User: Fold this.
Amino acid sequence: MSAMQGGPDAQLNRERQRESLTKVLGARTAKQLAKLSLETVEDLLRHYPRRYGDPGQLTDISQLKVGEHVTVMAQVRTATIRTMRSRGGAMLQATVTDGAHTLQLTFFAKRAGVLRMHEDKLRPGRTGLFTGTVGEYRGSRQLTHPDYLIVGVDAADEDEAVLEASRPIPFYPAAASVPTWRIGRSVRTVLDPLPDDYFADPIPTFLLERHGHFPLIPSLRDVHIPDDSAAWKRGRARFVYEEALILQSALARRRVAHELLTSVARPRRADAMAAAFDARLPFPLTQGQREVGEQIATDLERNTPMMRLLQGDVGAGKTVVALRAMLQVVDAGGQAALLAPTEVLAAQHLVTLRALMGPLAEGGMLTGAADATRVTLLTGSQGSKARRAALAEAASGAAGIVVGTHALLSETVQFADLGLVVVDEQHRFGVEQRDELRARGNRPPHMLVMTATPIPRTVAMTVFGDLETSVLAEKPAGRAEIATHVVPADNQAWLTRAWSRIREEVEAGRRAYVVCARIDGDTATESDDSANDAPDVDGALLAADGSLDLENGTPASTSKTPLASVSDTAAMLGARPELAGIGIGVMHGRLSAEAKAEAMGRFASGETPVLVSTTVIEVGVDVPQATVMVVLDADNFGISQLHQLRGRVGRAGHDSLCLLISRAEEGSVAQERLQALAATTDGFALAETDLELRREGDVLGAAQSGGRNSLRLLRVVRDAKVIDAARIDARELVADDPELTAYPALAQAIESWLEPAREDYLERS
Ligand code: ADP
Ligand code: MG
Assistant:
């Protein structure tokens, strides 16, 4: 079946794909298209329409907003030229209509003659596409000097005119200076003369047959020059599958390559720390913790490097699972590293691990257990003396467990025998870093990545397809209820009640977080901490898909009142009579590592039981007495982020409260997000809602055309079935032929997908 693949060989195929548009279309057109990053034949042909207009269907003019750049399909009603006595010169005014509403088109010129050309085309009754920025003049909306295409009139010949008037009209991601029909014309110029075997098809023939798809060139014609709506739907389905197949093949190859690596087996010992640790645990492990623990322990006993993703909702108890794995490795003579996304979390892990281990963490000290090791912290902003000491302990092997941030991956950190790397909060940790770790030394360490951000199955398959997955579904018993309420920011009575509630909780020995989007009055949102500069997994996926359905989109504007900042809010709360006499601490990413640790310490001890913070506390921070989480400007945060923040309370069996202060309008997507949060604490349900709502948000925010190497058509929720099928196909292909030598076009497609932009997308997850 393999040798049957038609088309040119890889070399020629690549040359044809990369042929410059300057050569094919001329310098002028090519220069325009370059504004959309379309430089080669392949770029242009892969620039798919984002939607299709029915030739008879006009745009609803009443929906146009002043200031938007739009493309409108409308019918000409009138067009008249006038000379302007006052200013001199001439003006053409046309009225176009969607049947119910009208839009003015205005053209100015020095002399009336120049406007005749427009008048001749804009004949009443004709239908056209008009593109420009919506303005307003004397109460009516208008386009000044719009670029336009009268359907059928500008066509090269009679045949084309008839086709243009009867076919679905492709709308391309366009730019103000390059209207959609100019792109369409260029595509047709390139595509029309191509024979059906001009390019090699990345989809193997037998897979085309299996799924009933058409080959590449006919499918390109289907999406760019569809005869009817069935054609473009069929074409799109093929390209959706193609994207899924390329992505899944890349992941399948990664898995196979991984299987060929060897690392050191770290067998369990019944007589050492891991066993002693289990014996001294103050609580019974949940069934999930035991089962996942067993999977991991078995993985570690093999000499193929473990690559496991552990998903467990906030508070599911992942740390203990990780620690048991680390102890197994240390018992077997190796070392383990625990990477946290922030220094706050790293410092906290150090404290937590030491507390859980007790004398087992006091290796080399008089108080230490017979079988004991040391747990060491290593972070980027540590003082040089502490850092030198930590580096020495890592290099000598005295530290069995080294806790740190990503700085731990730097070349200067040497381990005596690194056997396991645990990455906490995986959604901050990309494919490239995973590869970097695997490439370390000649024996790559085992790897366990943990995330509390619930990842819908389709996303897990798409982005983390190279990992085995374990799920901690249940939470330890005795978890408290967290009541979540959405509070309108202008409701003073509610806010006052919120501050009194904090006082009540504090008086009962509890703690409260107040989260703000910004650090101080001058700065934009918190961006100086590694926890905050990476978008959520789903954000990255959906921003990358690029193919949005709203030609007339402008980003939905968020509230205009400035967002609350940590410094202002701390001052405001300090002055509230309800909180008089209560210590208020502050926390944000710009504090030094020591200042952060001190702030967390004062909060945990109760010296400052109210902590005003940015989202640096978002992931993993564990202060059991915390029972109140107030998020200011909650409408500016995403679902998964709010879910994470909420996970900071209700951790020790005390019923807790989460207040989402919001300026979101009734019926807005932001409001829906907040209501979804108030309705459930089930992270997996929220993740699904999130993906669905983000779709909406995307459409409103539509601005971007898909970049060169982005996912253009594939959507992880909608296309779950296609992704499933492609995954089976990809594994089949790669199982027989890991290098895909029989399918050079597919191998080549994977390669060009994995060019920098593509990696960047995977990495942002
Ligand atoms: P996460 O999965 O969010 O990282 P943690 O590991 O921080 O959760 O665990 C949350 C809390 O639950 C910690 O205080 C931890 O000690 C506690 N915990 C973990 N496992 C159990 C268990 N089996 N029974 C009771 N409490 C547990
Ligand atoms: Mg955690």
